Amino acid sequence: MNSKYKRTQLTLPQNTSKLLLHSCCAPCSGEIMEALIASSIPYTVLFYNPNIHPQREYLIRKKENKTFAYKYNIPFIDLDYDKDNWFIRVKGLEKEPERGIRCKICFDMRFERTALYAFENNFDVISSSLGISRWKDINQINECGKRAVMNYKNIVYWEYNWRKNGGSTRMIEISKRENFYQQEYCGCIYSLRDSNKYRLSKGRDIIRIGTKFYGK
């Protein structure tokens, strides 16, 4: 971490003390993880992203996230690659646009699993790295997060805007510093399809999985 960078001092909400951070990937979570460390907030990272396809892409993102967590001795929970259940949940929504109802259902699925794990393992607050990306609808994400904890009276969803105070800029800086893998689509097979369709319409080559990195 850059010791010269002055961060905002963070505090957990509503007298909570045990944070479970859902992470979608290392580039999105890197800034959040370092911000939590700088504020001396203990936390555990949970990786549950059955939306990511193909499996090669999933494994690249997971391995990189796990490696970064271990660099700072942060506990890392690796849950199942529940892709079959994901496809069942989004069946019939294959042609939905990005930020549409398919994304909402995808967020719901990941937040529900995060909240359940939190309940089963005595975490009292959850948050996610999903909202730091400018490609996502932060209001949609927060609504899904709040909905996921409604059935658990002792769990709070931390609705913090990780983009503010230079968070989005720091996200890119850390990704370049760490030479993170630069994924070029959200993660699901339909996002990959639509991204490639757009690229071809602009005369660009299709996405090559596992080849592009921030530091290069």
UniProtKB/TrEMBL annotation:
Positions in coiled-coil regions? none
Annotated disulfide bonds:
C186-C188
Provide the top EC class. oxidoreductase
| An individual GO BP term | tRNA queuosine(34) biosynthetic process
Q: Which UniProt keywords apply?
A: 4Fe-4S, Disulfide bond, Iron, Iron-sulfur, Metal-binding, Oxidoreductase, Queuosine biosynthesis, Redox-active center, tRNA processing
Cross-referenced InterPro entries, in alphabetical order? QueH
The record's Pfam families line, in alphabetical order, gives: QueH (PF02677)
Q: What is its EC number?
A: 1.17.99.6
Q: Give the pathway annotation.
A: tRNA modification; tRNA-queuosine biosynthesis
Provide the GO MF annotations for this entry: 4 iron, 4 sulfur cluster binding; epoxyqueuosine reductase activity; metal ion binding
Q: Which PANTHER family match?
A: EPOXYQUEUOSINE REDUCTASE QUEH
What does the UniProt record say this protein does? Answer: Catalyzes the conversion of epoxyqueuosine (oQ) to queuosine (Q), which is a hypermodified base found in the wobble positions of tRNA(Asp), tRNA(Asn), tRNA(His) and tRNA(Tyr).
User: What is the protein name stated in its UniProt record?
Assistant: Epoxyqueuosine reductase QueH
